[in-house]
Amino acid sequence: MYLQLTDEALTDLLRKNDHLALETLFNRHYKPLCQFCAVYTRDYAAAEEIIANLFIKLWDGRHGSLILNIRSYLFVSAKNLALNYNQKKKEPVDSIEDINICESKFQDRDTPFRILSSRESYAGILTVIDTLPPGQRQILLMSHIDSLDNRQISTILGISVRTVDTTLYKSIKKLRLLLKDFRRSAS
């Protein structure tokens, strides 16, 4: 019975202390929310924990809030919680101490210069990606870091596949130009 109900109907039942409504919303939205959140955290396990906590907060606050569109509420909350997670984490990533010597398998070609220059290039690429507009950056990361196809991205973000295609094309085109400028300035 619950599977056929709309999100709005489930939200109304949730306000009436119906735990099955929460379970149905959880099953319906958990995986796409985790994938979406992982775009920001770059850590799927952390994303799962954030989304689980989001549903706990949803249950705890079921009486006090009037949510008109639960799907939008969940995705906006997931994004904000992921950004808060990143702010709290704030680990340095651009230092030589980040290289775990014990786990690295050095070969003759892995000289200190090559290791440092590849880390600097990686950091530079991430910096260039961060200059993209938020929508382009999000779709680019979902496509190339999370390996989601355009249909999955469109479902998660609630936009058309054609919009994902166009945005991805624009972001890659802009990224190529920015990386070309980055290489010139690094030389």
Structural notes for this entry:
It comes from Pedobacter westerhofensis. This is RNA polymerase sigma-70 factor, ECF subfamily. Belongs to the sigma-70 factor family. ECF subfamily. Keywords: Sigma factor, Transcription, Transcription regulation. Residues 25-89 form the RNA polymerase sigma-70 region domain. It is a single chain. With 187 residues, the protein is mostly helical. The protein has two domains: 1-93, RNA polymerase sigma factor, region 2, helix turn helix motif (Rna Polymerase Sigma Factor, Chain: A, Orthogonal Bundle), CATH 1.10.1740; 116-186, Orthogonal Bundle (Arc Repressor Mutant, subunit A), CATH 1.10.10. It is 71% helix and 0% strand. It contains eight helices and no strands. α5 packs across α8 (161-186). The chain is elongated, with a radius of gyration of 21 Å. The protein starts with 6 loop residues before the first helix and ends with a helix.
SSE class: mainly alpha
Number of helical segments with 4 or more residues? 8
Mean residue pLDDT = 80
Write down the oligomeric state.
single chain
What's the count of strands? Answer: 0
Q: CATH superfamily name of the largest domain?
A: RNA polymerase sigma factor, region 2, helix turn helix motif
CATH class of the largest domain: Mainly Alpha
Rounded Rg: 21 Å
Helix content: over 70%
Shape assignment: elongated
The rounded distance between the terminal residues' Cα atoms is 64 Å
SSE ordering? HHHHHHHH
Strand content: under 5%
Number of domains: 2
CATH architecture of the largest domain: Orthogonal Bundle
Largest sheet: none
Q: Stretches where pLDDT falls below 50 for ≥5 residues?
A: 92-108
CATH topology of the largest domain: Rna Polymerase Sigma Factor, Chain: A
